[in-house]
């Protein structure tokens, strides 16, 4: 249900707290092989799988608008030895969204729905809150472009453990209402939201008068020649489905049901998704039938509702079809990730090629990136890689864009504090050149390609734009799905100060563990027999240990158990309350004790550790982690 480059469970990121690190980059351009023939490409792809110890992959290549090659590497099922072939079915995760968008475009062509319509007018029964509804209503196109301002799924909304597979979509939104609380004016920024596509699937059902999967099957899948692809399990796709794996060595996973089925439950083979690529390259035509009008395909590829798009940035997330800059070219398509499966399809209309890559393991996201790069490099090798020419601009003219841009479009509100801590972007003018970097990263040049538009040195066209929002804030918006996508200029001082403060708190708390070794040994040996107020030492230590246990519980989260009531989620709930309570109790003890009754150094150290615990508790409360119940609706 999530783009492939995300972790299988977004909540796992909390476990790192202050220690989160970005995904490692791929091979350097000069180190990566550049296959010139199909056999060389196949060998290079197999090498990627072998190096990552992945069970299998399905691949399809489209060149000149037609299938060039389709096949597989490795095992669809390691237990039986079944090989991956062109017909092997995979759960393709968020690639499902592309078919939801195509279905709604088809309904619009039939005059049954208008993507510009307000959600409240089309489906008033769908619960959502939008304080900007009078000026910035949630429109259907906002659902498809992820610009409604919705949050992503709650932890307990991801997996369906107790209800039938076809649990009514409307009841899902009525049970889990929190994600539909709009966080900023709709149409201002893009933030990925699976619930929005769940609602889009429900709209298909309401307008078409039949289940969303039936409508998609009848109007899109079968007319495209996708004979086995489907959302539910069927007698046709079940025996063809690859087994899902994770870890190294591979561990087989089950098939957990999900509530938001339109957002991520399609099963399809590489050969079938190649037909989707051909269909998009042929501008809505399958065989001799025009399934969708060319202008509908163009609309699908275009982003219209974001502030960046309204100011002229061409690249971005359209209707479940987004652009990506890789290998010196701009491609369209979508990625997908769901338990044990990660996937990608991309295509380039201008050069009439595309590809599909499907993996039946989530062990290595880097492998998917490397396979994508190999496919792009091979398919684009005979085409020129042009770049939008850079414009020479005086340093004084770009100085107005300089500053620190804090992220303001978190995908998960619960995890937004991680982006707040280190996810911003520094824009500086160095030696007359506008540059971009993370808080602690190396500055990279930004080349001006027109007024407020910029691109990286290896990018073919503008990927970033600086604009002013309705409140007068300077905003930096990027086209990419990954990393920083939208930020407002703010002071950098508090960002650095907050990191330093949190690191200092953690260090002080860690010293209580070292100090405890000394006084506990002395206590056991009778050296503290006459010492009073041991609680002043012990309670900060217990608070520190409870925080360490809380972090440990977060590290044990993963997969389908994240939204369940388990020993780990129960531990998170209990420890996230125990830590602040112990911190406050320790503060009360430290303030209450008479300094004449305790060693001065001991009192100062205990007070500092206690204050560190209290500061961290305040941060946790502001992050809404205190009393966190991941299993609750």
The CATH architecture of the largest domain would be 3-Layer(aba) Sandwich
CATH superfamily of the largest domain: DD-peptidase/beta-lactamase superfamily
Distance between the termini: 19 Å
Q: Report the total helices.
A: 19
Q: Could you give the order of strands across the largest sheet?
A: 19-18-17-16-24-23-22-21-20
How many beta-strand runs?
24
Give me a quick take on this structure:
By secondary structure, the chain is α+β, with helices and mostly antiparallel strands. The chain contains 19 helices and 24 strands.
Give a written overview of the molecule:
The protein has about 625 residues and is α+β, with helices and mostly antiparallel strands. The chain folds into 3 domains: about 10-20 and about 40-380, 3-Layer(aba) Sandwich (Beta-lactamase), CATH 3.40.710.10; about 395-490, Lipocalin (Beta Barrel); about 495-620, no CATH class. About 35% of the residues lie in helices and about 15% in strands. Strands 19-18-17-16-24-23-22-21-20 form a 9-stranded antiparallel beta sheet, with no helix packed on it. It has a 7-stranded antiparallel beta sheet with strand order 3-2-1-15-14-13-12, with helices on both faces. α2 (about 95-110) crosses α8 and α18 (about 565-590) crosses α19 (about 600-620). The chain starts with about 35 loop residues before the first helix and ends in an 11-residue tail after the last helix. Residues about 5-25 have low confidence and may be disordered.
């Amino acid at each position: 249900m999530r783009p492939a480059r995300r972790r299988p469970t977004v909540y796992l990121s909390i476990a790192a707290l202050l220690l989160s690190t970005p995904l490692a980059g791929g091979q350097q351009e000069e180190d990566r092989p550049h296959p010139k023939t199909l056999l060389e490409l196949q060998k290079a792809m197999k090498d990627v799988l072998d190096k990552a110890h992945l069970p299998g992959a399905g691949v399809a290549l489209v060149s000149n608008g037609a299938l060039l090659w389709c096949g597989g590497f490795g095992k669809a099922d390691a237990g039986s030895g079944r090989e991956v072939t062109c017909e092997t079915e995979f759960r393709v995760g968020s690639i499902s969204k592309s078919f939801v968008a195509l279905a709604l475009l088809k309904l619009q062509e039939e005059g049954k729905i208008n993507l510009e319509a307000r959600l409240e007018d089309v489906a008033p029964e769908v619960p959502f809150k939008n304080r900007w509804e009078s000026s910035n209503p949630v429109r259907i196109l906002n659902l498809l472009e992820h610009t409604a301002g919705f949050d992503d799924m709650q932890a307990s909304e991801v997996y369906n453990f107790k209800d039938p597979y076809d649990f009514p979509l409307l009841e899902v939104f009525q049970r889990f209402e929190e994600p539909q609380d709009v966080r900023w004016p709709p149409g201002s920024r893009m933030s990925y939201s699976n619930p929005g596509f769940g609602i889009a699937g429900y709209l298909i059902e309401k307008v078409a008068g039949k289940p969303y999967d039936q409508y998609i099957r009848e109007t899109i899948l079968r007319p495209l020649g996708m004979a086995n692809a489907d959302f539910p399990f069927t007698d046709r796709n079940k025996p063809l489905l690859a087994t899902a794996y994770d870890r190294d060595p591979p561990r087989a996973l089950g098939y957990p049901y999900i509530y938001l089925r339109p957002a991520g439950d399609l099963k399809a083979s590489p050969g079938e998704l190649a037909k989707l690529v051909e269909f998009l390259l042929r501008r809505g035509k399958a065989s001799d039938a025009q399934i969708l009008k060319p202008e509908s395909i163009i609309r699908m590829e275009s982003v219209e509702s974001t502030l960046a798009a309204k100011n002229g940035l061409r690249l971005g997330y359209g209707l479940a079809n987004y652009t990506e800059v890789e290998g010196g070219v701009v491609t369209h398509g979508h990625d997908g990730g769901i338990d044990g499966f990660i996937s990608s399809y991309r295509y380039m209309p201008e050069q009439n090629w595309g590809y599909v890559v499907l993996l039946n393991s989530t062990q290595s996201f880097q492998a998917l990136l490397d396979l994508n790069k190999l496919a792009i490099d091979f398919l684009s090798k005979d085409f020129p890689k042009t770049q939008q020419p850079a414009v020479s601009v005086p340093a004084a003219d770009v100085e107005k864009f300089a500053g620190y841009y804090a992220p303001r479009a978190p995908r998960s509100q619960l995890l937004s504090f991680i982006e707040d801590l280190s996810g911003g972007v520094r824009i500086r003018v160095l030696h007359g050149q506008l540059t971009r970097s993370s808080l602690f990263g190396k500055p990279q040049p930004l080349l001006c390609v027109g007024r407020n538009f910029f691109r990286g040195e290896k990018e073919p066209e503008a990927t970033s734009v600086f604009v002013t929002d309705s409140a007068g804030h300077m905003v930096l918006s990027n086209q990419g799905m990954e990393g920083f996508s939208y930020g407002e200029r703010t002071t950098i001082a508090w960002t650095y100060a907050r990191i330093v403060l949190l690191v200092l708190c953690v260090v002080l708390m860690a010293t209580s563990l070292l100090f405890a070794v000394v006084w506990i040994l002395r206590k056991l040996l009778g050296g503290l027999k006459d010492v009073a107020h041991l609680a002043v030492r012990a309670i900060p230590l217990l608070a520190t240990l409870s925080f360490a246990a809380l972090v440990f519980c977060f590290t044990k989260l993963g997969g389908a158990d994240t939204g369940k009531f388990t020993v780990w989620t129960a531990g998170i709930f209990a420890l996230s309350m125990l830590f602040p309570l112990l911190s406050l109790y320790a503060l009360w003890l430290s303030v209450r004790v008479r300094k004449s009754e305790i060693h001065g150094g001991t009192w100062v150290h205990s007070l500092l550790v206690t204050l560190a615990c209290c500061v961290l508790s305040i941060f946790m409360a502001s992050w809404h982690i205190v009393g966190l119940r991941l299993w609750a609706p």
